[in-house]
Specification:
It contains 11 helices and no strands. The chain is mainly α. It has a domain of about 120 residues. The longest helix has 25 residues. The protein starts with a helix and ends in an 18-residue tail after the last helix.
């Protein structure tokens, strides 16, 4: 077992006999560009709605729900897609989210939510995780489309006006604190402290 490892390590440490330093540098640069291009292509491919709903767990549950909300069909004609709300736009935040999402892939492989019943059983935990993430990043994904500075409060009903003036414009709360269930059905909230 150690023989191949020693051979590989010795090969890496030894100077090149057949290739010049310039060739190795240029080759390393080209390999880096190819890796980076492939990495970004894969990253963008996994950041599309078609990828998100390619597994039946998402397509048959939350995607179906999304189609009944204002994020799908509204007067402005703007449609939010899965990555708009679940993947940050900034590169470093996006990478961190993709790494965290690997747990979801693991769950799909092992059938954690492969039936409607299992999905409903895990729904509160999954929603709570998303709500917590959005609370900690000040509802960053919401703010990519919705700007408090450009809200015309006079166009809102009195209850929404008061809530936005009291909480949002004073940074006392973030979007997700009040707008849980805006794009997906709420899980069973019975027994959740502070929930009316």
């Amino acid at each position: 077992m150690l023989g191949p490892i020693r051979w590989f390590w010795r090969t890496l440490r030894r100077p090149s006999v057949h290739f010049s330093l310039g060739f190795l540098t240029f080759g390393g640069f080209i390999a880096g560009v190819l890796f980076w291009g492939g990495f970004n292509t894969a990253l963008e491919a996994t950041n599309r709605e078609a990828f998100c709903v390619s597994c039946h767990e998402m397509r048959d549950n939350v995607y179906t729900e999304l189609k009944t909300t204002p994020h799908w069909s509204n007067a402005s004609g703007v449609r939010a897609q899965c990555p708009d709300c679940h993947v940050p736009h900034e590169w470093t935040d996006k990478i961190a989210r993709k790494v965290a999402a690997s747990k979801e892939v693991w769950g799909a492989i092992f059938g954690t939510i492969d039936t409607r019943e299992k999905f409903l059983d895990h729904r509160l935990a999954m929603a709570s995780r998303e709500w917590s993430r959005m609370t900690h990043n000040d509802s960053l994904e919401c703010r990519n489309c919705h700007s408090a500075d450009s809200m015309d409060l006079t166009q809102q009903n009195p209850r929404a006006q008061e809530a936005h003036e009291t909480f949002l414009l004073t940074d006392q709360k973030t979007c997700i604190d009040c707008h849980k269930g805006i794009a997906h059905e709420l899980p069973d909230m019975a027994g959740v402290p502070g929930w009316q």
